[in-house]
Design brief:
Layout (H helix, E strand, L loop, with lengths): L4 H18 L23 H16 L3 H9 L1 H14 L4 E7 L5 E6 L14 H6 E5 L4 H18 L4 E5 L4 E6 L2 H10 L8 E5 L8 E5 L11 E3 L6 E5 L8 E2 L2 E2 L1 E5 L8 E4 L4 E8 L4 E3 L2 E2 L10 E6 L3 E12 L3 E4 L11 E4 L2 E10 L2 E6 L1 H5 L4 E2 L3
Parallel strand pairs: 2-3, 5-6, 7-14, 16-21
Antiparallel strand pairs: 1-2, 4-5, 8-9, 8-23, 9-13, 10-11, 12-13, 14-15, 17-18, 17-20, 18-19, 19-22, 20-21, 21-22
Helix pairs in contact: 2-3
C-alpha cells in the first residue's frame, strides 16, 4: 500500500520532535540544558525556606544562623506594629525602621516621645525590648502630603524625577538628575517646595525592565537568540555578522561585543544593558516561544523540519536541504528577504541557528555552533 508522501513526512517529523524532547540527554551535541517546568521537582517546606533565608541573612549581616532565624521570625510582628501605629496613632506617628547593624533594633519615630503610647500595642515582650523611640518633626501623613504636593509641582515643569520618604531623615525627597535646574525652575515659577521636602541629586532614575529576545526587529536586521557570557555575566542578543555593529531596538542602543563581518561564519552579538532584560524567548509573529534546548549541526539532518522568524517575511517553516553548505552552514527551502538577517531558526523549544544569506528562494543559516565557537557565549535556555 502506498502512503501519501505528505502524511509520511508529517508522521516522521512528529516522531522526530517527540523523540528529541522525550529522550534523556546523552550527548551534548544535541542539548545543553533543560528547564525545571512548573509542577516538576520537590517543593521546599516552610522550614526549609526559612532556613535558606536565614543562611543568606546571616551571611549578609554577619550573625550566626540562630540569631538570623530569631530576627526573621519577628518580621511579621514588626509589620503588624507598623500598620497598627500608622492607623491608630497617625497624629504623631513618623515611621518605623529596623536597624540590622551593628546591633538589631526597631526604631520607632514619634512627634511626641512617650513610651506609654506604645504600651497597648506591645503584647510581645521580645519585641518591646528591641524598640528604641526617637523624636521626629513631621508625621508620616505630613510627609506623604508634602511629597505629593512637590511631585505635582515638578511634574508640571516637565522634569524627570522620582520621589520618596526618608524615615531616617524624617523628610520627603525629590530625586532628580540636575538639582540646579529644578531649583532654578521652581524659583522662576515663583513657587517654593514644602519645608518637609528636600531635593536629592542622583546619577540615574528608575527605569522600566524591558524584555528583549530573538525575532525582534533591530535597526537593520533581526535578533537571533538571547545569549550570556559566563565570565562576565553580560547578556545580549545575536544577529548576523554582516549587519551593522551596534544595533538598536525600540530606542535602546545595543553595544557590539564581538563577531565577524560576514562570510561563512556570519555572526555577532550585542550587549543588552539595563533596563533591557535578555530572556530565553523567540518571537513567532503571534507569541513569544521559550527556548529550552540547543541542537548543534552534527545532530541536524536533511529533511528535518525547522521554522524561522524575520522582521521582513515573518514566520515560516521548511525542510533542511543541505547541512554542509560551504562546509559549515545549513540550507533550507524557505525564502527570506533583506532585514531577516540574524533571525532565529528553531523548532518547538529548540534553537537551531540564525539567518545569514538569501539563496534564490532558499535560506542559508549559521548553526548554533557558531554562537558558541565564534562568539564564546551561551544561548539562554532558562
Amino acid at each position: 500500500m502506498l502512503l501519501n508522501l505528505k502524511v509520511v513526512r508529517s508522521i516522521t517529523v512528529f516522531a522526530t520532535i517527540v523523540l528529541l524532547l522525550a529522550t534523556p540527554v546523552r550527548n551534548s551535541t544535541t542539548t545543553l540544558a533543560a528547564p525545571i517546568l512548573d509542577g516538576e521537582g520537590p517543593i521546599a517546606s516552610r522550614e526549609q525556606v526559612l532556613a535558606d533565608s536565614a543562611a543568606a541573612y546571616a551571611s549578609t549581616v554577619g550573625v550566626d544562623i540562630k540569631e538570623a532565624m530569631f530576627r526573621l521570625k519577628l518580621q511579621d510582628s514588626i509589620g503588624n506594629l507598623e500598620a497598627t501605629l500608622a492607623e491608630k496613632e497617625a497624629a504623631i506617628y513618623a515611621g518605623l525602621q529596623v536597624q540590622h547593624q551593628p546591633d538589631f533594633r526597631i526604631i520607632v519615630r514619634l512627634t511626641e516621645v512617650d513610651r506609654g503610647i506604645l504600651t497597648p500595642y506591645l503584647t510581645d515582650a521580645t519585641l518591646s525590648k528591641l524598640i528604641e523611640l526617637r523624636e521626629a518633626t513631621f508625621t508620616i501623613k505630613e510627609l506623604e502630603f508634602a511629597r505629593a504636593q512637590a511631585a505635582e509641582m515638578v511634574a508640571k515643569l516637565g522634569i524627570r524625577f522620582s520621589s520618596g520618604i526618608s524615615i531616617n531623615e524624617n523628610l520627603a525627597e525629590l530625586y532628580v538628575l540636575d538639582e540646579k535646574q529644578l531649583t532654578t525652575d521652581i524659583h522662576n515659577m515663583n513657587a517654593e517646595l514644602p519645608p518637609e521636602v528636600r531635593i536629592v541629586r542622583v546619577d540615574e532614575l528608575p527605569q522600566d525592565v524591558v524584555d528583549i529576545y530573538g525575532g525582534l526587529a533591530l535597526s537593520t536586521c533581526t535578533s537571533g537568540f538571547s545569549v550570556h557570557k559566563a565570565s562576565t555575566g553580560d547578556r545580549g542578543v545575536t544577529t548576523a555578522g554582516h549587519c551593522a555593529d551596534g544595533q538598536s531596538w525600540n530606542g535602546y542602543y545595543l553595544s557590539w561585543m564581538g563577531g565577524t563581518t560576514g562570510g561563512m561564519y556570519d555572526i555577532q552579538w550585542n550587549r543588552a544593558d539595563p533596563p533591557l532584560n535578555a530572556r530565553n524567548l523567540v518571537w513567532t509573529g503571534t507569541y513569544a516561544q521559550a527556548i529550552y534546548f540547543v541542537k548543534f549541526r552534527a545532530s541536524q539532518y536533511v529533511g528535518e523540519y525547522v521554522c524561522k522568524y524575520g522582521k521582513t517575511t515573518g514566520f515560516a517553516c521548511g525542510f533542511i536541504q543541505d547541512k554542509n553548505f560551504d562546509g559549515v552552514n545549513v540550507r533550507v527551502n524557505v525564502n527570506v528577504e533583506g532585514g531577516d538577517s540574524g533571525g532565529p531558526w528553531f523548532q518547538n523549544n529548540v534553537a537551531y541557528g540564525t539567518t545569514t544569506l538569501k539563496y534564490g528562494n532558499q535560506t542559508i543559516y549559521g548553526p548554533v555552533d557558531h554562537i558558541y565557537n565564534i562568539l564564546g557565549v551561551n544561548i539562554l535556555t532558562n
